[in-house]
Amino acid sequence: MKLWGGRFTKEEDQLVHEFNESLSFDRRLYRQDIEGSIAHVTMLARQGIVTEEDRDAITGGLREILEEIEQGKLEFTKEYEDIHSFVEAKLTERIGEPGKRLHTGRSRNDQVALDMKLYCREQTRELSRLVRELEQVLLTVMEENLETYMPGFTHMQKAQPVTLAHHVGAYFEMFERDRSRLHDIAERMNYCPLGAGALAGTTYPLDRNYTAELLGFAGPTLNSMDSVSDRDYVIELLSALSTIAMHLSRFSEEIIIWNSNEYRFVEIDDAYSTGSSIMPQKKNPDIAELVRGKTGRVYGALVAILTTMKGIPLAYNKDMQEDKELTFDAIDTVKNCLTLFTGMISTMTFRKDVMEQSAKRGFTNATDAADYLVNHGVPFRDAHGIVGQLVLYCIDRGIALDDMSLSEFQAVSPVFEEDIYQAISMKTCVERRTTVGAPGPEAMKQAIQMCRERLEKWEQ
Ligand code: ARG
Asked: What's the pLDDT score for residue 2?
Protein backbone atom coordinates (compact mmCIF):
# COMPACT_ATOMS: atom_id res chain seq x y z
CA MET A 1 0.00 0.00 0.00
CA LYS A 2 1.65 3.21 -1.15
CA LEU A 3 1.07 6.77 -0.04
CA TRP A 4 1.99 8.21 -3.42
CA GLY A 5 -0.16 6.12 -5.78
CA GLY A 6 -1.38 9.14 -7.75
CA ARG A 7 1.79 9.92 -9.66
CA PHE A 8 2.90 6.34 -10.31
CA THR A 9 1.90 3.97 -13.04
CA LYS A 10 3.71 0.75 -12.04
CA GLU A 11 3.88 -1.34 -8.92
CA GLU A 12 7.26 -1.18 -7.27
CA ASP A 13 9.60 -4.10 -7.66
CA GLN A 14 9.72 -6.44 -4.67
CA LEU A 15 13.46 -6.00 -4.19
CA VAL A 16 13.07 -2.24 -4.36
CA HIS A 17 10.42 -2.42 -1.70
CA GLU A 18 12.61 -4.49 0.56
CA PHE A 19 15.61 -2.24 0.05
CA ASN A 20 13.58 0.88 0.70
CA GLU A 21 11.42 -0.18 3.61
CA SER A 22 12.16 0.68 7.22
CA LEU A 23 9.13 -0.78 8.99
CA SER A 24 11.15 -3.84 9.97
CA PHE A 25 13.19 -1.64 12.30
CA ASP A 26 11.40 1.71 12.73
CA ARG A 27 8.37 -0.13 14.12
CA ARG A 28 10.03 0.44 17.46
CA LEU A 29 9.03 4.12 17.08
CA TYR A 30 5.30 3.35 17.09
CA ARG A 31 4.63 5.07 20.40
CA GLN A 32 6.54 8.22 19.48
CA ASP A 33 4.82 8.26 16.09
CA ILE A 34 1.37 8.04 17.63
CA GLU A 35 2.14 10.59 20.35
CA GLY A 36 3.40 12.99 17.69
CA SER A 37 0.27 12.49 15.60
CA ILE A 38 -2.01 13.11 18.56
CA ALA A 39 -0.18 16.36 19.35
CA HIS A 40 -0.30 17.37 15.68
CA VAL A 41 -4.04 16.82 15.29
CA THR A 42 -4.76 18.48 18.63
CA MET A 43 -2.97 21.56 17.32
CA LEU A 44 -4.70 21.32 13.93
CA ALA A 45 -8.11 21.36 15.64
CA ARG A 46 -7.18 24.25 17.90
CA GLN A 47 -6.14 26.22 14.84
CA GLY A 48 -9.41 25.37 13.09
CA ILE A 49 -7.60 23.38 10.38
CA VAL A 50 -9.57 20.22 11.16
CA THR A 51 -12.85 19.94 13.04
CA GLU A 52 -13.12 18.82 16.61
CA GLU A 53 -15.07 15.76 15.46
CA ASP A 54 -12.24 14.77 13.14
CA ARG A 55 -9.74 15.33 15.92
CA ASP A 56 -11.70 13.11 18.28
CA ALA A 57 -12.09 10.38 15.69
CA ILE A 58 -8.36 10.53 14.91
CA THR A 59 -7.12 10.55 18.50
CA GLY A 60 -9.58 7.77 19.40
CA GLY A 61 -8.37 5.65 16.49
CA LEU A 62 -4.71 6.32 17.28
CA ARG A 63 -5.14 5.35 20.93
CA GLU A 64 -6.81 2.14 19.85
CA ILE A 65 -3.94 1.36 17.50
CA LEU A 66 -1.42 2.08 20.25
CA GLU A 67 -3.18 -0.25 22.62
CA GLU A 68 -3.43 -3.03 20.07
CA ILE A 69 0.24 -2.76 19.18
CA GLU A 70 1.18 -2.90 22.85
CA GLN A 71 -0.97 -5.95 23.39
CA GLY A 72 0.58 -7.59 20.34
CA LYS A 73 -2.78 -7.71 18.58
CA LEU A 74 -1.82 -5.56 15.63
CA GLU A 75 0.74 -7.08 13.35
CA PHE A 76 3.31 -5.07 11.40
CA THR A 77 2.75 -6.60 8.00
CA LYS A 78 5.36 -6.29 5.31
CA GLU A 79 3.47 -4.30 2.70
CA TYR A 80 3.94 -0.99 4.52
CA GLU A 81 7.05 1.07 3.95
CA ASP A 82 7.58 2.53 7.36
CA ILE A 83 5.95 3.11 10.74
CA HIS A 84 4.43 6.39 9.57
CA SER A 85 2.58 4.89 6.61
CA PHE A 86 1.62 1.87 8.69
CA VAL A 87 -0.08 3.91 11.42
CA GLU A 88 -1.79 6.22 8.95
CA ALA A 89 -3.10 3.31 6.87
CA LYS A 90 -4.40 1.47 9.92
CA LEU A 91 -6.08 4.64 11.11
CA THR A 92 -7.86 5.25 7.85
CA GLU A 93 -8.87 1.60 7.66
CA ARG A 94 -10.61 2.06 11.00
CA ILE A 95 -12.10 5.54 10.96
CA GLY A 96 -12.31 6.29 7.24
CA GLU A 97 -12.40 9.88 5.95
CA PRO A 98 -11.04 11.73 9.04
CA GLY A 99 -7.95 9.49 9.01
CA LYS A 100 -7.00 11.03 5.68
CA ARG A 101 -6.89 14.48 7.25
CA LEU A 102 -4.23 13.65 9.84
CA HIS A 103 -1.32 14.35 7.51
CA THR A 104 -2.47 17.94 6.79
CA GLY A 105 0.46 20.33 7.18
CA ARG A 106 2.92 17.54 7.85
CA SER A 107 5.45 15.47 5.95
CA ARG A 108 7.11 12.21 6.85
CA ASN A 109 10.30 14.24 6.89
CA ASP A 110 9.36 16.29 9.93
CA GLN A 111 7.46 13.32 11.31
CA VAL A 112 10.47 11.02 11.32
CA ALA A 113 12.70 13.79 12.69
CA LEU A 114 10.23 14.15 15.55
CA ASP A 115 9.88 10.43 16.23
CA MET A 116 13.61 9.90 16.33
CA LYS A 117 14.11 12.91 18.60
CA LEU A 118 11.41 11.77 21.00
CA TYR A 119 12.98 8.34 21.09
CA CYS A 120 16.52 9.65 21.61
CA ARG A 121 15.32 12.05 24.30
CA GLU A 122 13.63 9.26 26.20
CA GLN A 123 16.59 6.92 25.83
CA THR A 124 19.02 9.62 26.93
CA ARG A 125 17.10 9.89 30.19
CA GLU A 126 17.04 6.14 30.63
CA LEU A 127 20.77 5.93 29.96
CA SER A 128 21.43 8.66 32.48
CA ARG A 129 19.43 6.67 35.03
CA LEU A 130 21.50 3.54 34.35
CA VAL A 131 24.78 5.45 34.65
CA ARG A 132 23.52 6.85 37.93
CA GLU A 133 22.77 3.36 39.23
CA LEU A 134 26.31 2.31 38.45
CA GLU A 135 27.63 5.39 40.22
CA GLN A 136 25.62 4.52 43.32
CA VAL A 137 27.28 1.10 43.42
CA LEU A 138 30.71 2.67 42.94
CA LEU A 139 30.05 5.09 45.79
CA THR A 140 29.21 2.20 48.10
CA VAL A 141 32.46 0.44 47.18
CA MET A 142 34.29 3.72 47.81
CA GLU A 143 32.72 4.24 51.22
CA GLU A 144 33.62 0.72 52.29
CA ASN A 145 37.23 0.93 51.14
CA LEU A 146 38.68 4.20 52.37
CA GLU A 147 41.54 2.26 53.94
CA THR A 148 41.88 -0.62 51.54
CA TYR A 149 45.42 -0.06 50.33
CA MET A 150 46.46 -1.14 46.89
CA PRO A 151 49.17 -0.31 44.40
CA GLY A 152 48.50 2.55 42.05
CA PHE A 153 50.07 1.87 38.63
CA THR A 154 51.75 3.82 35.87
CA HIS A 155 52.99 1.95 32.78
CA MET A 156 51.37 -1.11 34.42
CA GLN A 157 54.18 -0.95 36.98
CA LYS A 158 53.45 -0.51 40.64
CA ALA A 159 53.97 3.18 41.40
CA GLN A 160 52.59 4.58 44.64
CA PRO A 161 50.04 3.28 47.11
CA VAL A 162 46.45 4.38 46.73
CA THR A 163 43.23 2.99 48.11
CA LEU A 164 40.50 1.04 46.40
CA ALA A 165 38.17 3.94 47.20
CA HIS A 166 40.45 6.27 45.29
CA HIS A 167 40.88 3.95 42.31
CA VAL A 168 37.13 3.38 41.99
CA GLY A 169 36.59 7.10 42.55
CA ALA A 170 38.47 7.75 39.30
CA TYR A 171 35.73 5.81 37.47
CA PHE A 172 33.06 7.68 39.36
CA GLU A 173 34.46 10.88 37.86
CA MET A 174 34.34 9.41 34.36
CA PHE A 175 30.76 8.26 34.70
CA GLU A 176 29.74 11.54 36.25
CA ARG A 177 31.09 13.35 33.19
CA ASP A 178 29.15 10.87 31.05
CA ARG A 179 25.99 11.70 32.90
CA SER A 180 26.54 15.41 32.55
CA ARG A 181 27.16 14.90 28.84
CA LEU A 182 23.84 13.06 28.50
CA HIS A 183 22.17 15.90 30.32
CA ASP A 184 23.67 18.51 27.95
CA ILE A 185 22.61 16.49 24.94
CA ALA A 186 19.06 16.10 26.22
CA GLU A 187 18.80 19.87 26.58
CA ARG A 188 20.21 20.59 23.17
CA MET A 189 17.94 18.13 21.40
CA ASN A 190 14.86 19.40 23.19
CA TYR A 191 13.43 21.43 20.27
CA CYS A 192 10.52 20.19 18.23
CA PRO A 193 10.91 19.77 14.45
CA LEU A 194 7.23 19.06 13.79
CA GLY A 195 5.69 21.68 11.54
CA ALA A 196 8.80 22.01 9.37
CA GLY A 197 6.85 20.09 6.72
CA ALA A 198 8.85 18.49 3.93
CA LEU A 199 11.48 21.24 4.16
CA ALA A 200 9.89 24.65 3.72
CA GLY A 201 7.25 24.86 6.43
CA THR A 202 3.59 24.85 5.37
CA THR A 203 0.94 27.28 4.24
CA TYR A 204 -1.43 26.20 7.02
CA PRO A 205 -1.55 28.39 10.12
CA LEU A 206 0.18 25.83 12.35
CA ASP A 207 0.97 26.78 15.93
CA ARG A 208 4.36 25.18 16.30
CA ASN A 209 4.84 26.55 19.81
CA TYR A 210 1.73 24.72 20.91
CA THR A 211 2.78 21.39 19.34
CA ALA A 212 6.19 21.74 20.96
CA GLU A 213 4.59 22.42 24.31
CA LEU A 214 2.23 19.43 24.00
CA LEU A 215 5.22 17.17 23.43
CA GLY A 216 7.22 18.58 26.32
CA PHE A 217 9.83 20.39 24.22
CA ALA A 218 11.45 23.68 25.21
CA GLY A 219 10.20 25.17 21.92
CA PRO A 220 10.06 24.62 18.16
CA THR A 221 13.20 24.35 16.00
CA LEU A 222 13.90 27.55 14.11
CA ASN A 223 14.78 26.63 10.55
CA SER A 224 12.57 24.20 8.67
CA MET A 225 15.34 22.94 6.35
CA ASP A 226 17.62 22.24 9.28
CA SER A 227 14.74 20.67 11.21
CA VAL A 228 14.23 17.86 8.71
CA SER A 229 17.88 17.24 7.97
CA ASP A 230 19.50 17.61 11.36
CA ARG A 231 20.81 14.41 12.91
CA ASP A 232 23.36 16.11 15.17
CA TYR A 233 21.44 14.87 18.19
CA VAL A 234 21.90 11.28 17.02
CA ILE A 235 25.62 11.89 16.51
CA GLU A 236 25.96 13.53 19.91
CA LEU A 237 24.15 10.68 21.57
CA LEU A 238 26.31 8.09 19.80
CA SER A 239 29.39 10.03 20.77
CA ALA A 240 28.31 10.06 24.42
CA LEU A 241 27.55 6.34 24.16
CA SER A 242 31.00 5.73 22.71
CA THR A 243 32.58 7.51 25.65
CA ILE A 244 30.50 5.51 28.13
CA ALA A 245 31.47 2.31 26.31
CA MET A 246 35.13 3.38 26.41
CA HIS A 247 34.94 3.95 30.16
CA LEU A 248 33.18 0.63 30.72
CA SER A 249 35.79 -1.04 28.59
CA ARG A 250 38.73 0.42 30.52
CA PHE A 251 37.17 -0.63 33.79
CA SER A 252 36.43 -4.09 32.38
CA GLU A 253 40.03 -4.41 31.30
CA GLU A 254 41.17 -3.67 34.85
CA ILE A 255 38.71 -6.13 36.30
CA ILE A 256 39.92 -8.81 33.91
CA ILE A 257 43.48 -8.15 35.06
CA TRP A 258 42.48 -7.99 38.73
CA ASN A 259 40.54 -11.23 38.38
CA SER A 260 43.49 -13.03 36.76
CA ASN A 261 45.31 -15.84 38.55
CA GLU A 262 48.37 -13.60 38.86
CA TYR A 263 46.64 -10.64 40.50
CA ARG A 264 43.72 -12.11 42.41
CA PHE A 265 42.67 -8.61 43.58
CA VAL A 266 39.03 -9.49 42.96
CA GLU A 267 36.85 -12.45 42.44
CA ILE A 268 33.99 -12.09 40.04
CA ASP A 269 30.85 -13.74 41.32
CA ASP A 270 29.93 -17.11 39.81
CA ALA A 271 26.78 -15.58 38.42
CA TYR A 272 28.89 -13.27 36.22
CA SER A 273 31.52 -15.82 35.21
CA THR A 274 31.53 -18.79 32.88
CA GLY A 275 33.43 -22.04 32.75
CA SER A 276 35.37 -23.79 30.05
CA SER A 277 34.08 -26.79 28.13
CA ILE A 278 37.48 -28.46 28.39
CA MET A 279 39.45 -26.99 31.30
CA PRO A 280 37.72 -27.79 34.59
CA GLN A 281 39.69 -25.24 36.62
CA LYS A 282 38.57 -22.24 34.61
CA LYS A 283 36.30 -19.44 35.68
CA ASN A 284 36.34 -16.85 32.98
CA PRO A 285 35.42 -13.16 33.16
CA ASP A 286 33.23 -13.35 30.05
CA ILE A 287 30.90 -10.53 31.00
CA ALA A 288 33.77 -8.08 31.47
CA GLU A 289 35.29 -9.26 28.20
CA LEU A 290 32.02 -8.84 26.35
CA VAL A 291 31.50 -5.36 27.73
CA ARG A 292 35.03 -4.51 26.56
CA GLY A 293 34.37 -6.16 23.21
CA LYS A 294 31.06 -4.48 22.50
CA THR A 295 32.75 -1.08 22.53
CA GLY A 296 33.73 -1.73 18.92
CA ARG A 297 30.18 -1.82 17.62
CA VAL A 298 29.23 1.34 19.51
CA TYR A 299 32.18 3.22 17.96
CA GLY A 300 31.16 1.66 14.66
CA ALA A 301 27.71 3.22 14.90
CA LEU A 302 29.20 6.65 15.53
CA VAL A 303 31.60 6.45 12.62
CA ALA A 304 28.86 5.07 10.36
CA ILE A 305 26.44 7.92 10.99
CA LEU A 306 29.16 10.56 10.77
CA THR A 307 30.12 9.12 7.40
CA THR A 308 26.53 8.88 6.19
CA MET A 309 25.82 12.49 7.09
CA LYS A 310 28.94 14.02 5.64
CA GLY A 311 27.78 14.21 2.05
CA ILE A 312 24.09 14.94 2.44
CA PRO A 313 22.90 18.18 0.85
CA LEU A 314 19.95 20.01 2.38
CA ALA A 315 17.32 19.00 3.13
CA TYR A 316 15.92 15.48 3.73
CA ASN A 317 17.53 12.62 1.80
CA LYS A 318 16.78 8.95 2.22
CA ASP A 319 20.35 8.28 3.40
CA MET A 320 19.16 9.49 6.77
CA GLN A 321 17.02 6.41 7.22
CA GLU A 322 20.34 4.69 7.95
CA ASP A 323 20.46 6.44 11.32
CA LYS A 324 18.00 4.04 12.91
CA GLU A 325 19.34 0.50 13.06
CA LEU A 326 22.76 1.56 14.25
CA THR A 327 21.41 4.00 16.81
CA PHE A 328 19.00 1.42 18.18
CA ASP A 329 21.76 -1.15 18.34
CA ALA A 330 24.19 1.19 20.10
CA ILE A 331 21.56 2.23 22.65
CA ASP A 332 20.53 -1.37 23.37
CA THR A 333 24.15 -2.43 23.62
CA VAL A 334 25.20 0.28 26.05
CA LYS A 335 22.08 -0.20 28.18
CA ASN A 336 22.81 -3.91 28.47
CA CYS A 337 26.48 -3.27 29.20
CA LEU A 338 25.62 -0.77 31.95
CA THR A 339 23.12 -3.11 33.57
CA LEU A 340 25.41 -6.13 33.51
CA PHE A 341 28.47 -4.21 34.55
CA THR A 342 26.64 -2.73 37.54
CA GLY A 343 25.49 -6.20 38.56
CA MET A 344 28.99 -7.58 38.18
CA ILE A 345 30.56 -4.85 40.35
CA SER A 346 27.94 -5.08 43.06
CA THR A 347 28.46 -8.84 43.45
CA MET A 348 32.25 -8.88 43.11
CA THR A 349 34.53 -9.74 46.05
CA PHE A 350 37.48 -7.42 46.65
CA ARG A 351 40.43 -9.23 48.24
CA LYS A 352 41.69 -6.44 50.42
CA ASP A 353 44.58 -8.44 51.88
CA VAL A 354 45.93 -9.38 48.45
CA MET A 355 45.75 -5.77 47.31
CA GLU A 356 47.61 -4.50 50.35
CA GLN A 357 50.24 -7.23 50.11
CA SER A 358 50.76 -6.35 46.46
CA ALA A 359 51.29 -2.68 47.30
CA LYS A 360 53.91 -3.64 49.89
CA ARG A 361 55.78 -6.07 47.69
CA GLY A 362 55.94 -3.56 44.86
CA PHE A 363 58.01 -0.84 46.58
CA THR A 364 55.13 1.58 46.19
CA ASN A 365 56.44 3.32 49.33
CA ALA A 366 59.85 4.06 47.78
CA THR A 367 58.91 7.69 47.04
CA ASP A 368 57.88 8.10 50.65
CA ALA A 369 61.21 6.66 51.85
CA ALA A 370 62.96 9.27 49.72
CA ASP A 371 60.66 11.98 51.08
CA TYR A 372 61.66 10.85 54.59
CA LEU A 373 65.29 11.58 53.77
CA VAL A 374 64.39 14.92 52.20
CA ASN A 375 62.56 15.87 55.40
CA HIS A 376 65.80 15.14 57.23
CA GLY A 377 67.80 17.50 55.05
CA VAL A 378 69.00 15.18 52.25
CA PRO A 379 68.66 16.74 48.75
CA PHE A 380 65.98 14.91 46.74
CA ARG A 381 68.36 13.70 44.01
CA ASP A 382 70.60 12.06 46.65
CA ALA A 383 67.59 10.63 48.46
CA HIS A 384 66.39 9.14 45.16
CA GLY A 385 69.78 7.43 44.72
CA ILE A 386 69.88 6.09 48.28
CA VAL A 387 66.43 4.57 48.09
CA GLY A 388 67.31 3.16 44.68
CA GLN A 389 70.16 1.26 46.33
CA LEU A 390 67.83 0.01 49.05
CA VAL A 391 65.36 -1.26 46.48
CA LEU A 392 68.10 -3.13 44.66
CA TYR A 393 69.20 -4.66 47.96
CA CYS A 394 65.64 -5.80 48.70
CA ILE A 395 65.06 -7.20 45.20
CA ASP A 396 68.19 -9.37 45.63
CA ARG A 397 66.77 -10.76 48.84
CA GLY A 398 63.15 -10.94 47.79
CA ILE A 399 61.96 -8.68 50.60
CA ALA A 400 60.03 -5.42 50.94
CA LEU A 401 61.48 -2.12 52.21
CA ASP A 402 59.54 -2.58 55.44
CA ASP A 403 61.22 -5.96 56.02
CA MET A 404 64.71 -4.48 56.35
CA SER A 405 66.29 -4.04 59.77
CA LEU A 406 67.27 -0.57 60.95
CA SER A 407 70.96 -1.40 60.64
CA GLU A 408 70.40 -2.45 57.03
CA PHE A 409 68.76 0.95 56.41
CA GLN A 410 71.57 2.75 58.20
CA ALA A 411 74.25 0.87 56.29
CA VAL A 412 73.10 2.79 53.22
CA SER A 413 72.30 6.08 54.98
CA PRO A 414 72.86 7.01 58.63
CA VAL A 415 69.96 9.47 58.39
CA PHE A 416 67.43 6.66 58.87
CA GLU A 417 65.98 6.30 62.39
CA GLU A 418 63.46 3.96 63.99
CA ASP A 419 60.55 6.14 62.76
CA ILE A 420 61.27 5.12 59.14
CA TYR A 421 58.95 2.13 59.56
CA GLN A 422 56.04 4.30 60.43
CA ALA A 423 56.94 6.77 57.69
CA ILE A 424 56.79 4.13 54.97
CA SER A 425 53.82 2.12 56.20
CA MET A 426 50.99 1.96 53.66
CA LYS A 427 48.76 3.73 56.13
CA THR A 428 51.12 6.70 56.51
CA CYS A 429 51.90 6.87 52.80
CA VAL A 430 48.22 7.17 51.96
CA GLU A 431 47.13 9.23 54.97
CA ARG A 432 49.64 11.95 54.28
CA ARG A 433 48.21 12.55 50.84
CA THR A 434 45.55 15.01 51.87
CA THR A 435 45.36 17.52 49.01
CA VAL A 436 42.12 17.82 47.12
CA GLY A 437 41.73 14.79 44.86
CA ALA A 438 44.38 12.72 46.68
CA PRO A 439 43.76 9.26 48.18
CA GLY A 440 44.14 10.21 51.87
CA PRO A 441 40.99 9.05 53.70
CA GLU A 442 40.22 12.56 54.93
CA ALA A 443 40.42 13.96 51.40
CA MET A 444 38.42 10.98 50.13
CA LYS A 445 35.67 11.44 52.69
CA GLN A 446 35.15 14.97 51.46
CA ALA A 447 35.28 13.82 47.87
CA ILE A 448 32.64 11.18 48.55
CA GLN A 449 30.41 13.76 50.17
CA MET A 450 30.69 15.88 47.05
CA CYS A 451 30.02 12.85 44.84
CA ARG A 452 26.80 12.20 46.76
CA GLU A 453 25.70 15.78 46.20
CA ARG A 454 26.54 15.61 42.53
CA LEU A 455 24.44 12.47 42.20
CA GLU A 456 21.41 14.49 43.21
CA LYS A 457 22.00 16.80 40.28
CA TRP A 458 20.59 16.16 36.80
CA GLU A 459 17.96 13.82 38.07
CA GLN A 460 16.10 13.57 34.83
N1 ARG B 1 11.64 5.90 6.78
C2 ARG B 1 12.06 7.24 6.52
C3 ARG B 1 13.30 7.56 7.37
O4 ARG B 1 13.53 6.86 8.27
C5 ARG B 1 10.95 8.19 6.88
C6 ARG B 1 10.95 9.47 6.11
C7 ARG B 1 10.66 9.22 4.70
N8 ARG B 1 10.48 10.41 3.97
C9 ARG B 1 10.50 10.36 2.65
N10 ARG B 1 10.29 11.48 2.04
N11 ARG B 1 10.70 9.29 2.01
O12 ARG B 1 14.03 8.49 7.11
From this structure: 66
